[in-house]
Amino acid sequence: MWDGTLPVPIDELVSSIVVRPPSRFEDRYPKMLPVVIQDEDNEALSGSCKFDADSGQYVITVSPQNNRLRRRFTIAHELGHIIQKHLDKSEKMYRADNASNFYSTINDPQEVAANRFAAQLLMPKEAVEHFAINTNQSLEEIASTFQVSTAAMRFRLKNLGLI
C-alpha cells in the first residue's frame, strides 16, 4: 500500500483504492467500489464516513475547519472504519466522529482500531523507526516530515517502544 513517499499522500491513496461493498449490498454491487473525499461544513464533526447506496461508493467527509494535520488524520481514521468494515457492523451505513474520538483516552474498540489504522498508515513503522533511530531530528521535526501532529507522533513512538 505504501510506496515510501513521505508524507504519505493520503488524498491520492484514497482516490486510488477500491473496497468491497458492505455485506448487505454485495448482490447490488458485486464489484469493488471507490472511496471519495468530500468537504462538509459541520462544526460539530471532524469527519464521517458512509456508504452511499444510490451512487455505489463510500464517502469520507471531512470538515474544512480542520487544520491540515487534523484533516490528514481524519481521512485516514475514516478510511480505517471503511477498510475494517465498521459500517457492516452497524445498523446505519454512516459513522460520524467528533474531535474527541481521536484522543488516546477513547475506549470504543472501533475508534481505537480506526486510530491505530490511521497511525500505521500515516506513520509507517519502518519509516518512523528510521527517523527515530538514525537521525537527530526532534519530535517536532519528525512529526513535520510525516505531516502529523506532535501528539500523534509521540503516541506512535510510544506504541513502537521508541520513547
Search tags:
alpha+beta, 163 residues, 6 helices
State the secondary-structure class: alpha+beta
Describe the largest sheet: 5 strands, mixed
Number of discrete helical segments = 6
Distance between the termini: 27 Å
Description of the structure:
By secondary structure, the protein is α+β, with helices and mostly antiparallel strands. The protein has helices spanning 10-16, 68-83, 109-122, 125-134, 139-146, 150-159, and strands at 18-19, 33-39, 47-52, 57-62, 94-97. Strands 1-2-4-3-5 form a 5-stranded mixed beta sheet. The radius of gyration is 16 Å and the shape is elongated. The two termini are 27 Å apart.
Short recap of the structure:
The protein has 163 residues and is α+β, with helices and mostly antiparallel strands. Helix content is 40%, strand content 15%.
Helix and strand topology:
Blueprint: H1 10-16, E1 18-19, E2 33-39, E3 47-52, E4 57-62, H2 68-83, E5 94-97, H3 109-122, H4 125-134, H5 139-146, H6 150-159
Parallel strand pairs: 2-4
Antiparallel strand pairs: 1-2, 3-4, 3-5
Helix pairs in contact: 2-3, 5-6
